[in-house]
Amino acid sequence: MDANAIWKVSTGKGVKVAVIDSGISDSTPSLKGQVLVGEVPQKVAYGATKDYVGHGTTMAELIAGTGAGGGLKGLAPGAKIIPFRVQVSEMKDKAEQKKTAEPAEAIRAAADTDAKIINMSFGQDLIDPDTEAAVKYAQSKGKLLFAAVGNDAEKKNSIGYPAAYDNVVGVAASDETGKVGKFSEHGSFVDLAAPGLHLPEWCDATLASYCSDAKGTSSASALASASAALIWSAHPDWTNNQVLRVLTDTASRSWPKDTPSNYLGYGLIRPARNLLHNEGQPGTANVDPITNQQTTETGSGSDTPSSTSASGSSQPSQKASDVPAEAAGSEAKSSSDSNTLWIALGAIAAVIVVGGVGFAVMRARRS
Asked: Are 16 and 114 in contact (CB under 8 A)?
C-alpha cells in the first residue's frame, strides 16, 4: 500500500464511511473523535455504538482508526465513520433485538446520510428482496457500496449477498503475496480483492485486547472501502462510478481486464497507483464500470435507477473466468473467520456470516 507515502497526498479527510456491522464502539483510543454518532438516523440509531462482538469496531479501525493509544491505524485515518448496528445473536433480550435495525433498514438509513461509502462486512446465501431494494436505493443516492464475499469456500462456496447484488462491489481476501485465501468464496460476483489474512482484530466484545492473525473477507471489504475513501478525498468532484473505475483500472492483475478472475475479480486494490502515480482514468460519471450500466442519481429516493447500459443493451455483471495460476490457493490455514448462523427470511432459512464472528439477524415480522 505504501501508506506513509499515500498519507502525504490523502488521508481520506472529508469522506464519511457508513459501517453496517455488529455496532462500532466510539470509545477505543483509535476511534475517539472518529465515530459520528449524531449522524445516525434516529430510526436505526439504537445501540449503534454498542458492539456485541468486537467485529464492527475492528472494521471501523481498519478503515479510519487513528492508531492512538497503540490501537489500529486504518488505511484512511482522516475519514470518519457513521456507525450502524444490525441484529446479532448475542442479543438475548428479544425486546432489544426488535429495537435494533435489520440490514435493509440500515442500508436505506445509511443512504440518507452524508456517507459516500457503505461498508457491509456481512452476508447471507439467499436473495432478500428488501435488502436488494435497499441497495438499489443507496446506489440511486450516489453511494459506493462494498461487501465481503464470504468465508466458506472450503465447505460450500455459496453465492454471497449483498456482495452479489448489482451495484455492490464484492471483495475477496488475499494474503501479502497476492494469493487468494483458501476460505475466500469465489465466483463471478467477486469484483476486487484486498488484504484479508494475517491482520489483527478485537478479540471479543470486551475490547480489552487484539487477537493476531485474523482472516476474512470482512477485513478485505473494510480496506477496499478505505481505499475508495482515499481516492474520493483526493478527487471530491468524482462520482461513485469514477472512484470505482479508477480502483478497477489500477488493480494489480496478470490476466485480461475484460475477463475478471472468479477468485480476485479485477485484481488487488492499489490506491497508490492513482494517488502517487496519477494512474487510472475516471471515465464516464454515470456508468457503472463493472455492470456497464448507466446509473441515475435521483437524490429523491427512487428505487429504480436506470438499467440501460452505455451501449444501449443490458450487460452481465461479470464474465466468469478461470483462476490465474498465481491466484490459486493461499498457503493460509482454514479461516477462523467463517462461523455461520441462520437468518430467517419469511418462511425461508438462509445462512449469514459476519466476518470473524457469525451472528444471526432475525427478521422481525412487522405490520
From this structure: yes
The residue from 21, 125, 128, 337 that is catalytic is 21
130: CATH: 3.40.50.200
Are 227 and 301 in contact by the 8 Å Cβ rule? The answer is no
d(C-alpha 254, C-alpha 266), whole Å: 10
Please provide the average confidence, as pLDDT, over all residues in the chain: 83
pLDDT digits (tens, 9 = 90+) for 4-38: 999 999 999 999 999 999 999 999 999 999 999 99
- Catalytic residue of the set 10, 26, 55, 227: 55
pTM for the predicted model, two decimal places: 0.84
User: What are φ and ψ of residue 17, in 5° steps?
Assistant: -120, 120
Q: Which is catalytic among the residues 22, 25, 188, 218?
A: 218
Decide if 21 is catalytic: yes
Domain holding 115, by residue range, is 3-353
Query: Beta partners for 252?
Result: 268
**Residue 343's pLDDT is what?**
29
Nearest one of 354, 307, 345, 355 to 104, comparing CA atoms: 345
What is the tally of structural domains in the chain?
A: 1
Q: Which of 16, 151, 43 is nearest to 98 (CA)?
A: 43
What sections of 141-235 are H helices per DSSP?
A: 217-234
55 is annotated as an active-site residue: yes
When pLDDT is cut at 50, 70 and 90, the band that residue 99 belongs to is confident
